[in-house]
Amino acid sequence: MSGSTSVAPPRRGPGIWAVGGYIRELQVPRCANRPPRQSGQELRRMEQRAFGDLEAVVMDWVWDHQEPATVRDVFEDLAQQRPIAYTTVLSTMDNLYRKRWLKRQRSGKAYVYRAAMTREERSARLMKAAFDSGGDTNTVLAFFLEQMSAEQSAQLKAALRKGRRS
Questions:
Q1: What is the DSSP code (8-state) at residue 79?
Q2: Which pLDDT does position 19 carry in this prediction?
Q3: Which helix (H) or strand (E) holds 98?
Q4: How far apart are the first and last CA of the chain?
Q5: What confidence tens digit (pLDDT) does each residue in 95-110 have?
Q6: Residue ranges per domain, the chain?
Q7: Which of 92, 95, 121, 141 shows its CA 20 to 30 Å from the CA of 56?
Q8: Which residues of the chain have pLDDT under 70?
Q9: CA of 128: how far to CAs of 38, 48, 50, 94, in Å?
Q10: Residue from 36, 26, 155, 157 nearest 97 by CA
Q11: What is the spatial distance between Cα 95 and Cα 98, in angstroms, rounded to a whole number?
């Protein structure tokens, strides 16, 4: 075969695959125990976002139980209350982990999950985010105070007094 040039076969190896002679690089898988890095601004935006319906149910379950839990633990409890697939709970908990709402640790073949912050810490961060992004802080605070019950107002006053002493 004179006059024809030989073409080297497509290079293959970790993270590289060939389709129709084109070489494409795959993203290197990240460590399963480490969520992707995000900037401080991205993290603040995530904290401000509300949970989806199932995310809220899962987070409430995790906060209510306080002990580290597997996907199976959460699934078995939720399946008694509503029709739900194990894989739906699995992907929801993985999403909450990637969004840094849950922490996880390998335990045998499964992960055990726990909340990255308490329900109260999340509420406090949401309030701070509202003050930071809600326009005039004094006006936001005035509207916030108008919505409080007498009991909540008394609790706020007590917390402010306690905070000043610290």
A1: H
A2: 44
A3: helix 86-98
A4: 88
A5: 999 999 999 999 999 9
A6: 40-115, 119-161
A7: 141
A8: 1-49, 164-166
A9: 20, 9, 14, 26
A10: 36
A11: 5
